[in-house]
Write a structure and sequence with these properties.
β8, α9 and β9 form a beta-alpha-beta unit. The chain is built from 21 helices and 18 strands. The chain is elongated, with a radius of gyration of 27 Å. By secondary structure, it is α/β, with parallel strands linked by helices.
Length: 526
């Protein structure tokens, strides 16, 4: 994102901008300094020799150029806000922050800097400051938010801005070059939703949620959006995996058409994995693609489905067989939402976190073994494992967005897990529960193929049990139904069932083909 600092001279734009860029690791750009470097002379001389009109023309060109730079903090000259073109350019994928200070403090700061400001080279500079502020204040009010800098240091101002934008939280970037996006992880994130939506300058906003979760957070969400004059449409769908189908996609598309949503609109997925997948699919197909952001409210969605851009719906013959790769513009994870989750839903999310430990990070696996109580009591360990899971997935997706190779490792436990869900009509198991069973069976399959040690497989099973997850298939589920479901899966290639199997905890490999009799033997054993 871009953070644009505007305001009168002496309000701290440059000093605050440098503090922000240092804290965020963003590029810092001072438009006045850039103009001086290119013109080879200070702003005061440009004004004196060529006049204000010439300066504003150069300034507008510079502003247009820097407005294209992402992950940057831009300190603008005091008069930048006078041009509507400047405001529109800077506001594109950025948040404009107005730094405010009283006239007397502004004069004191300018004098301490040397007082060489062309607009204040008059007999009564304080009177001139008051006059200019009166003219510009209505323009500064175009900013998205304001911060009073009168009696706080640049560092304190920077901290206040980070708090406003939820950038003081844990952040992970999914690096897809021009389509990169941030994952923001922290507490009280929902309070920042309205301001973060301003970054996208949407013509309309629709919140897609379900009838279970939205009433819990309705007041907080609508208050946050209302603070920034955003009046969203709210589209609610029933709660449950069985509703993840074309019926509800059609319903959402119809509501968007009825309300005349256009290509500059924005969808907000507020809920678990079902809501996130459906919203992403609706966004990817409405008018051939509009923007959406993910606000996942379940642990499973926070560490898995909200990140990576996989969208889709289920079919009676197969899970997630119809969908798209379509990345969100932002993911906002408020860990407070998992405090209202039923215990089963929380455990289901832990299955995906265990998966990340097996496929990529032995230390994470060890951490899960040694910090169960802290994690289950929603201590600091929860933020740690959520962030680490997001980092692992973001790293994999950044290298293989469309699952042409590396990204397939994320399917560990899913080949059998998805088949169990399909064979039971998506009604008997939560997704994470099915994946937990799939991981235990895949580990045993790897042992039988002599690529994984038995004691390591036992560790996986024990960890799954430690987090109250199932490890076996109930007797009344037909093995043949599971195998048939596995035959109709995205992971099948040329009739061969592909598997991600562990070599050691922290490392997996993909096998293009696994003997069906061996698969059947493992299924029957469990």
């Amino acid at each position: 994102m871009k953070i644009i600092l505007t305001g009168f001279m002496g309000t701290g734009k440059t000093s605050v901008g440098k503090e922000l860029s240092k804290k965020l690791g963003y590029q810092f750009i001072d438009t006045d300094a850039l103009i001086e470097a290119r013109e080879g002379k200070p702003v005061s001389l440009i004004f004196k020799e060529k006049g204000e009109d010439y300066f504003r023309k150069i300034e507008q060109a510079v502003v247009k150029e820097v407005s294209l730079m992402n992950n940057s903090v831009i300190a603008t000259g005091g008069g930048v806000i006078k041009s509507r073109n400047n405001v529109e350019n800077l506001g594109s994928r950025g948040i404009i922050i107005w730094l405010k200070a009283d006239p007397g403090i502004i004069l004191k700061r300018v004098m301490l800097e040397g007082g060489k400001r062309p607009l204040l080279e008059v007999e009564e500079p304080l009177k001139e400051i008051n006059k200019l502020l009166a003219e510009r204040t209505p323009l500064y009010m175009q900013a998205d938010v304001s911060v009073d800098t009168n009696y706080i240091t640049p560092e304190e101002t920077a901290e206040e801005i980070l708090e406003l934008l939820a950038l003081h939280s844990q952040n992970v970037t999914v690096d897809l070059k021009e389509r990169s996006y941030d994952i923001v992880i922290g507490s009280k994130i929902l309070n920042k939703l309205g301001l973060r939506l301003r970054e996208f300058r949407p013509s309309r906003v629709a919140i897609i949620s379900n009838k279970t979760v939205f009433p819990i957070y309705k007041d907080a969400i609508l208050r946050s959006l209302n603070d920034f004059n955003i009046k969203p449409e709210v589209i609610l769908i029933p709660d449950g995996e069985k509703y993840k189908d074309f019926t509800w996609i059609y319903h959402i598309q119809g509501e968007l058409l009825k309300e005349k949503f256009d290509r500059d609109s924005l969808l907000v997925a507020f809920g678990g994995g079902v809501v996130g997948d459906i919203t992403g699919f609706a966004a990817s197909t409405y008018m051939r693609g509009i923007r959406y952001i993910q606000v996942p409210t379940t642990l499973l969605a926070q560490v898995d489905s909200s990140v990576g851009g996989k969208t889709g719906v289920n079919h009676p013959l197969g899970k997630n067989m119809i969908g798209t790769f379509y990345q969100p513009s932002l993911v906002m994870i408020d860990i407070d939402t998992i405090r209202t989750l039923p215990k089963g839903e929380f455990s289901a999310g832990m299955a995906e976190i265990i998966k990340y430990g097996v496929i990529a990070d032995r230390e994470l696996f060890n951490y899960l073994e040694n910090n169960r109580e802290n994690i289950l009591s929603l201590g600091d360990g929860v933020i740690h494992v959520i962030k680490r899971s997001c980092e692992i997935k973001a790293g994999i997706v950044s290298k293989d967005e469309k699952e042409t190779g590396l990204r397939a490792v994320l399917n560990f436990g899913h080949t059998i897990g998805h088949a169990i869900e399909t064979a039971t009509g998506y009604k008997r198991f939560l997704h994470g529960e099915a994946v937990a069973i799939g991981m235990c069976l895949a580990a045993d399959l790897a042992v039988r193929m002599n690529i994984f040690k038995k004691k390591e497989a036992v560790r996986i099973q024990n960890l799954v049990e430690l987090y109250k997850l199932p490890t076996t298939i109930p007797d009344n589920i037909n093995t043949s139904d599971i195998i048939n479901a596995m035959e109709i899966d995205k992971k099948v290639k040329d009739g061969n069932i592909r598997f991600i199997l562990p070599e050691s905890i922290g490392k997996v490999r993909m096998l293009e083909s696994v003997d069906r009799e061996l698969i059947k033997e493992v299924l029957q054993r469990y």
